[in-house]
Write a structure and sequence with these properties.
313 residues; alpha+beta; Beta Polymerase, domain 2; ten-stranded mixed beta sheet; three-stranded antiparallel beta sheet; disordered N terminus; disordered C terminus
Length: 313
């Protein structure tokens, strides 16, 4: 159970009033200064991105938010923090009543062992259009604090909605991601895309056509009714025709090949095992030989263990 601050998220940091949470979204960035935590400077790619792009991935890796991260995590660190990221997202969406489900690589991980695949560095989910409007109206830029085992001070996660989410055209290729759930300590995030009616296809007689801005196309009956399951030891929803969707996106071999990305699948342990231990990531040049930034000492991230339950503060 999270404790969230619907409009206080940056009522303190940005000086907005409490009623600002429900104000119409404006196409402006939540820049580094407005959300900064422990870092000395912004390491997002904002300066090099086109001006109409809202989300800015880090300069050192596309699956980190450079407002909160200054390095890649190690293989083991990333697994632990992605698990917590997924669990807290699902718990929060369930608490506030948003309709969401896992897709793409995350759904493939569910297929194999109900877990995130260990070589993945991101998580993909979809959401109904009605729920995305709901998040934008009431939960945009909210901070959700979780007490996690092994982390005495807990962890803050930020829900951020792209103001371009109302533009459902695939031509808006700079803003394919409608929202993100961001770990404000590690910079890892979940990409959230909205499933919408495909009015163009329906006008051509293709009833029940659906689409996302990232140019994935479906039929209503592919996704709904959603099925109930478990992912990373947390209740989750998955699309109705999950196997057909996975085969269409990845091919039949993705559901049967037990060797992939330098891992083998152990049927007895129901786990992907690395063939060799993955190497440590190379630190960016602004770190010295001890792993410290010359401007600010790099805090040692504590890895949350596997979480069986989530507490609220």
């Amino acid at each position: 159970m999270p404790s969230y601050i619907p409009s206080l998220l940056l009522a303190l940091l940005l000086g907005f009033s409490v009623v600002a949470a429900a104000a119409p979204l404006q196409p402006r960035d939540a820049d580094f200064a407005s959300v900064r935590t422990r870092l000395d400077r912004d390491r997002s790619g904002k300066k090099g991105d086109p001006p109409d792009k809202y989300f800015h991935e880090s300069t050192f890796h596309p699956h980190y938010d450079g407002r909160f991260a200054d390095r890649e995590l190690s293989y083991r660190e990333r697994q632990a923090h992605l698990t917590a990221l997924m669990q807290t997202y699902l718990s929060t969406m369930n608490d506030i009543g948003a309709e969401t489900w896992i897709m793409h690589g995350s759904l493939l991980g569910w297929w194999w062992n109900r877990k995130i695949m260990p070589w993945d560095s991101d998580i993909d989910v979809q959401m109904s259009e009605r729920s995305m409007h709901y998040l934008a109206d009431y939960y945009n830029m909210t901070i959700h604090h979780y007490k996690l085992p092994g982390l005495p001070d807990g962890r803050d996660y930020m829900l951020e909605v792209n103001p371009h989410y109302k533009n459902g055209s695939i031509a808006d290729h700079l803003n394919m991601i409608d929202a993100r759930w961001v770990d404000t300590e590690t910079g890892l995030f979940i990409d959230i895309t909205t499933l919408r009616r495909n009015a163009t296809a329906e006008a051509e007689g293709k009833k029940g056509s659906m689409m996302c801005k990232d140019d994935h196309h479906y039929y209503f009956d592919d996704v709904f009714p959603l099925r109930e399951s478990v992912f990373e030891n947390t209740p989750v929803k998955i699309p109705y025709a999950y196997s057909e969707l996975l085969v269409e996106e990845y091919g039949e071999q993705a559901l049967t090949d037990t060797s992939f990305e330098n891992h083998v699948f152990n049927q007895d342990r129901m786990e992907w095992i690395p063939i060799v231990e993955p190497p440590e990531p190379v630190l960016p040049p602004y770190y010295n030989s001890r792993g410290d930034s010359p401007a600010v000492k790099k805090p040692k991230l504590r890895m949350p263990p596997k979480i069986s339950d989530l507490g609220s503060s």
